[in-house]
Specification:
heterodimer, A: alpha+beta, extended, B: mainly alpha, 7 helices, 0% strand
């Protein structure tokens, strides 16, 4: 085995193929997902805390009871974002507004995930029934 | 095997102190790069946990010029460091990304041998690093629509892989002086 080359001419072809596939998939996905009615589901670790209908044109800022220091903002244009958070990296805030089905924003240090799902559809993984309630206040 | 590369490996392995120091340097390099990376704004802001993977440079160096074992060791230490400094979840993300990326790079090297270039290996490593992290995120938290981010991962992996390969090329001469 000889020492590898840093770069070969055929690399350009491979890179172009990867880029084309990526861009095409991205464009196709955006086209499909754009105009669907969407619901934002807010999770605290694996518990669904709230489902928010994004197509009602409401504007409000709110937080979930488990993490009052994390403020989410819903916009009338059907998008939602993390507005404030006490986490160190602020990845959640940098994510910006999300509105399309399939997008998600997460504040991992605080365990909060917001994901946009199609309205009126349920995930097959969703629980059919909730027995008991995990009280987050007990964790403090 | 190329004589120069073989000589280099042997000169490192024949001397325990040398190999210890080189591993320590590579680990230090990985840590500094990951700190620098954390200071930069996220590459793909909408995908949680997905980053440039600059510290992969150290892993790649170990893989290309030392042995697979050393590369895994650096990846493992990197994950451990992330777990200690940034929490268990960061550690798991780092580990799953690092191991999957390394596995993909090794597979490519075995499959294509000398027909592949460092650049492509690096690109594949970056793409699989991101995929590994996203899979871990999807496992830890309730099913995020992972597939929706796949195209983003491909493109960001391309950019990140090209960047890391270029940086590695700049760093190689400095590290080779040690041998």
């Amino acid at each position: 085995m000889k020492e590898l080359k840093f770069f070969k001419k055929t690399d350009i072809i491979v890179i172009l193929i990867i880029a084309t596939v990526g861009l095409a998939a991205l464009a196709g996905y955006r086209l499909i997902a754009r105009e669907k009615p969407a619901v934002a589901e807010i999770y605290y670790y694996s518990d669904l805390i709230a489902s928010i209908n994004l197509n009602e044109g409401e504007e409000r800022a709110f937080s979930i009871p488990q993490k009052p220091n994390v403020i989410l903002h819903q916009y009338p244009d059907g998008s939602i974002c993390f507005e404030e958070s006490d986490c160190p990296d602020k990845v959640c805030i940098h994510t910006g507004k999300i509105s399309m089905v399939g997008q998600s924003a997460a504040c991992l240090p605080n365990g909060i995930i917001v994901k946009i799902v199609p309205a009126g559809e349920r995930d097959p993984d969703d629980p059919d029934i909730v027995v008991g309630w995990h009280d987050a206040a007990m964790d403090r | 095997m190329d004589k120069k590369l073989k000589d280099y490996r042997e000169s490192i392995e024949s001397n325990k102190t040398k190999s210890l120091v080189l591993m320590a340097l590579l680990f230090a390099l990985a840590l500094v790069l990951s700190i620098v990376e954390n200071l930069l704004p996220p590459v793909v802001p909408s995908v949680p946990g997905v980053k440039f993977g600059l510290s992969n440079i150290a892993v790649m160096y170990a893989l290309f010029f030392l042995r697979k074992r050393q590369a895994f060791l650096i990846a493992l230490l990197k994950a451990l460091f992330a777990a200690v400094t940034r929490g268990v979840i960061a550690g798991i993300l780092s580990l799953s990304g690092g191991v999957l990326s390394l596995a993909a790079m090794i597979l490519l090297m075995l499959l294509f041998g000398e027909r592949i270039s460092y650049l492509l290996i690096s690109v594949a490593g970056s793409i699989f690093h991101n995929i590994g992290q996203l899979v871990a995120v999807a496992f830890i938290y309730t099913s995020i629509y992972t597939f929706a981010y796949f195209p983003v991962l491909l493109i960001s992996g391309l950019a990140a892989g090209t960047a890391t390969a270029t940086l590695l090329r700049l760093i190689i001469p400095a590290l080779k002086k040690l041998g």
